[in-house]
Every structure is written in structure tokens, then in C-alpha cells.
Amino acid sequence: MKIRKSTPYLEATHKLKEAIQNTFVYKQKGSCPASPRKMIIACTDRRFYAGGMCDRFKGMVSAYAWAKANGYEFRISHSFPYELHDFIDCASYDWTLKQGEMSPYAADARMLYARGEGTGRRLTGYRPDGRQIHYFGNMDVVEKINATFGTEYDWGTLFRELFKPGKALQEEIGRFTPDTPYVSASFRFQHLLGDFDEKLAKKIKDAEQRDRYIRCCLDAIQEIKALNPGKMVLVASDSGTFVDEALKIDGVFAVPGQRVHIQFDTNAKSSAYLKTFLDFYLLAGAEKLYRVCAGKMYGTQFPLCASRINNRELVDLRYELD
């Protein structure tokens, strides 16, 4: 295991980031007496890497679970690269951050940083000190919260309590959802095919090898169609090249538009971010979800999170390629 990924190293770096923020960013003099102390605020802003949309949802849902378990109010401060309310509305719980609730003073609030920390110890082990919590987390630790506090929270139920599509997103969901039941197939190439600019993977330079990836994944769609006769197949992928080929198969549909990674494409148009949310909710509406990996493709968390919203089955299909 690499040192930089070990739990002790992560926790040490997280504590250092907290100390820097709590000392030099939060105001050391003054207070805002009206700001609630028993409140945890899930934060996403320009200061720190937050990951993609699913990572952000995992962090927010986990913070909400902790709030419920500890009798805290819960809010969301999501400002980068968009305001969450641009696309998502509150469901049964109002997580909207009101003016004056979030204090910038060290006497009132403190940062709790837990990005990439999968053990959940930074959150489950936190001992309230009378200050509100500004939580920076992007991991799903709901089960660890259940184990710590004796709760039985379900991730999908928590998600549905918090979020529902905004008006514009709901209109697009209605426009693209088929009239009949459908299944989905997700393919995450990153930069392998050279058409999705992401720093986490290298382009395959050999054209014949790229074609093998495409053919293998097209065969996977045919296999999925055979397993689900008569049902349409929603294809979700970060590769426009692959989607164009997939749409040549009868019974396949996809959401058109620009494909972006929320963390890296921070200057994209609003319509591009809307497409990401639309893909996510359409996946959640599928009867069954398939996650396809071949060779060096990435095992995306996107369909996993979507499947948990309505407790749908996720099936992994794995193919070996040279």
C-alpha cells in the first residue's frame, strides 16, 4: 500500500488542512451569536478537490446521516462549479443554507475535513465541542454511521429525503424517459479513446486497440439486449465516440450533449452540468443497471449511486482485453 493512500497519512494531512483553515481562514476575533451551533454544513467550494457528482452526493448524504444520528440540523453549501439549487430542489428536508446561519468565526465554527477518508472515523469519531461543523467529505460512510450510532439508515432513503429534481431537470427527465421499462449500460473510458479530457487516464495511441475496446463494449450491449428482450437500453458514457457507435444499435438511446467532469470542467455551460444530472436520474429510473468494464476502463461509481436511489439491481460485466 502506498504511504500517501494509507489511513494514518490521510488523517495526518486532513488534520493539517483543518489546522491551517481553522487558524488562517476563520476569523479569530468576533462571533455570530445567531448562527446555530448544533448544525453540520456539507461544503463544496473552490478550496479543495471534491470529485465528481456522485462523490459529492456521497459526502452530503453521509453528513445528513450523522446529523440525524446526533440531533443536528443539516445544511448544504455547494457553490463550485455551480449552485446545487440550479438543478436540485429540497425534498422532504430543507437543507437550504439561510443567510446568517454559516459563521466565519473560529469561536462559532470549525472545519472537519474528510475527503478520501473511507474509514469514516473522522466523522463517526468527532466529538462535538459546541461549534457548528463545516464538513468537507466525499465518501459514503452511512454504514459506518449505522455501526457507530446503532441506526439503520438506508442510503437511498436518505437521498430521497434530501433531493428531488428541479423544474428544468424534471422537464428533461420527462422528455427523455421512454414510455416503456428500460435497462441501462454504463461505460467509463476516461481518456482511453482520446475524446474525454481527464487527467486520470492516458489515451490509447494504437487505433486498432481502441477499436477492440469499442467492439467489445458494443458486444456487451448486444449481450444486455439478449438478457432483457424487448427493453430499450440507455447507454451512459463519457465517450462521445463510443455513444455514436452504440446509437447505431436498434433499441439503444442516450442523452445528447456535451460530456463533462464536474471537478475538472469548471467553466462549462449550465446545459453540460444539466446533462450530468439527467444521466444520473435516468440511470436511477432503469429497471436494472449494468456497469461494463473492459481492459483499462474505470469501474465508475455513477451507476452504483444511481442504483441505490430506488434500490435497483446493479450488474457488473467485466471483459479482459490485452
Strand fraction equals 15-25%
Order of helices and strands: HEHEEEHEHHEHEHEHEHEHE
Unreliable runs: none
Q: Major sheet, described briefly?
A: 5 strands, parallel
Would you report the number of β strands? 11
- How are the strands of the largest sheet arranged? 9-8-7-10-11
What's the alpha carbon Rg, rounded to whole Å? 21 Å
Q: Helix share of residues?
A: 25-40%
Q: How would the global form be characterised?
A: elongated
Kindly name the structural category. alpha/beta
What this model shows, in words?
The protein is of the alpha/beta class. 36% of the residues lie in helices and 18% in strands. The chain contains 10 helices and 11 strands. It has helices at residues 7-24, 53-70, 121-124, 142-149, 155-162, 167-176, 207-227, 240-246, 270-284, 302-309, and strands spanning 39-44, 73-78, 88-90, 109-114, 132-137, 163-165, 182-187, 232-237, 252-253, 288-294, 313-319. Helix 6 (167-176) crosses helix 9.
